[in-house]
Design a protein that fits this description.
Elements (H helix, E strand, L loop, with lengths): L4 E5 L2 E5 L7 E5 L1 H6 L6 E6 L9 E5 L4 E5 L4 E3 L4 E4 L11 E6 L1 E5 L3 E5 L1
Parallel strand pairs: 7-11
Antiparallel strand pairs: 1-2, 2-3, 4-5, 4-9, 5-6, 8-9, 10-11
């Protein structure tokens, strides 16, 4: 069962876990977006720091300001990503390292795909 994802503000989400009552993981993509001056339509993919057995890939689609969790077998990549990482001594939020897909969007045609726009 997938855990709840709550959008708290633009490019920021909160994930909670039934296995860990009272624990919420706050994820803020704004530091990466600001650090690298990302603009327009793009997707960001990262490995989630979730409890063992619930880990998935996390995908943020900036064009629609949407975050979702995906299993590796649910996603196909049609765009070559760039690796981005911010300095963890400066940025204190997660994620700090992502795969960045410029000029892309999430599509669904039986499976999810990161496709060029």
């Amino acid at each position: 069962m997938l855990e709840p994802i709550i959008r708290t503000e633009a490019a920021t989400v909160s994930l909670s876990y039934r296995l860990l009552p009272g624990f919420n993981l706050q994820m803020d993509f704004n530091p990466i977006i600001d650090w690298f001056r990302l603009r327009g339509q793009f997707c960001i993919l990262h490995w989630q720091a979730k409890p063992f057995g619930q880990r998935r890939w996390g995908l943020y689609d900036a064009g629609i300001d949407r975050y979702m969790s995906l299993k590796y077998c649910e996603l196909q990549l049609q765009v070559i990503p760039q690796l981005l990482q911010v300095d963890e001594n400066i940025v204190k939020t997660v994620p700090t390292a992502v795969l960045y897909f410029p000029q892309s969007k999430l599509t669904k045609n039986g499976y999810y795909s990161i496709a060029s726009i």
